[in-house]
Amino acid sequence: MSTFVSVNIMKWLIHRQTASLGQITVTQLGAVSSAVGGSVSIKCRTSQNVYNNNYLAWYQQKDGGVTKLLIYRASNRQSGIPARFTGSGSNSDFTLTISGVQAEDAAVYYCQSYHIVQKPPSVRLNRNCRD
C-alpha cells in the first residue's frame, strides 16, 4: 500500500517600488501529491523578472508552524535542508523539486519573489538658471 503526501502550494510576493508602475503577479499551481519515494515539482512564475534574475526563495510551513527557508536565490539550499530539496530557474520561471518525497514533506510551500521596480528617469528644470 502506498502512502501519499499532499503538498499545498502558496505564494508570497515582496517587491520594492519607487513609483507605482503596475502590479507584479506570481502564479503557482494549487496542489500536488506524490507517493513516498516519488518526486514532485512545484512551479512558480512571476509576471516580471525577479531582481538579479535569481532573487526567488522557497519556504515550507507544516501545520501552521514556523515557516522554514528551504532555498534562497533560486538554487541555494539553506544550511540543514536535505539534499532532496532542489531549486532551479531564473528570470521569471522557477521550480522547487522534491526528490524521494518523505511523509514529513507534507506541508504548505511558498515561493517568494523580490523585485525592484524603478520609475523612468526624469529631468528637473529650474527657472532661474545662470551659467
Describe this protein's structure.
This protein is mainly β and 131 residues long. It has a single domain (4-117), classed as Immunoglobulins (Immunoglobulin-like), CATH 2.60.40.10. The chain has no helices and ten strands. The protein has a six-stranded mixed sheet, with no helix packed on it. Strands 2-4-9-8 form a four-stranded antiparallel sheet, with no helix packed on it. The chain is elongated and about 75 Å long. This is Ig-like domain-containing protein. Residues 22-124 form the Ig-like domain.
How far apart are the first and last residues' alpha carbons, in Å? Answer: 86 Å
Query: H/E element string?
Result: EEEEEEEEEE
Q: Structural class, from secondary structure content?
A: mainly beta
Trace the largest sheet across and list its strands.
3-1-10-5-6-7
Question: What is the total tally of β strands?
Answer: 10
What's the story with the biggest beta sheet?
Answer: 6 strands, mixed
Radius of gyration, in Å, reads: 19 Å
Number of domains: 1
Total helical segments: 0
Basic shape: elongated
> What is the percent of helical residues?
under 10%
Write down the CATH topology. Immunoglobulin-like
CATH architecture: Sandwich
Instruction: Say which CATH homologous superfamily is assigned.
Output: Immunoglobulins
Domain Ig-like: 22-124
Protein name: Ig-like domain-containing protein
Organism: Oreochromis aureus (Israeli tilapia)
Outline of the structure:
This protein is mostly beta strands and 131 residues long. It is 0% helix and 51% strand.
